[in-house]
Amino acid sequence: MINVIKPNQLLIAFVSFFVLLGGCNAQEPAKTEKATESKTKTGEKMSANPIIKMETSKGTMTIELDAEKAPNSAANFVAYVEDGFYDGVIFHRVIPNFMVQGGGMNPDMSEKANKKASIKNEANNGLKNDRGTLAMARTNDPHSASSQFFINLKDNDFLNHSSESPAGWGYAVFGKVTDGMDVIDEIAKVKTGNHGGHGDVPLEAVTIIKATVEK
Questions:
Q1: What is the per-residue pLDDT across 71-94, written as a single tens digit (0 to 9) for each?
Q2: pTM recorded for the entire structure
Q3: What does the DSSP assignment read for 46-81?
Q4: May I ask the CATH class of domain 29-213?
């Protein structure tokens, strides 16, 4: 007998297959913490809207974080930037008209080590997965996000929070691209294929050269 997938089951299957999965089946840290306090590495109080400059092999973009609505996710991202964790990693998953994902894989598609503990999902903060926004990538565990993030190429309403359940938690938006969305659109045009069992991998590495906190 053929199993017919109902619309809500289809949505869950779509999310489970395509999204963003903190590492394309890579293991995420099991421990979940409240996340880094809203302070910079130097101990200063973090700005309500930290500005991140991200230089990539396709160009440079500016990202504005929302530390008011997504304090844990923003502080987590800032901590990774200040540690230099993102320097040299790649955008390892590109799906046109959907999203580009990066923040955790080396150019050879091995997972970068020394990730911080996972953080609590903040997808219930009211921010939407609209075009140009950044959201935390994760596994099927709603509270498994650590270093990986994705940038929405269009309004992806089905990724938004709908309920505090495994199927409804959604993906936590914590910032947006304020300059350089054309760079993201260029990344979305790269040819992709399979690499070591992973799909949608750019055939030519798209690298984060340097990420810095501007303020």
A1: 999 999 999 999 999 999 999 999
A2: 0.84
A3: PPSS-EEEEEETTEEEEEEE-TTT-HHHHHHHHHHH
A4: mainly beta
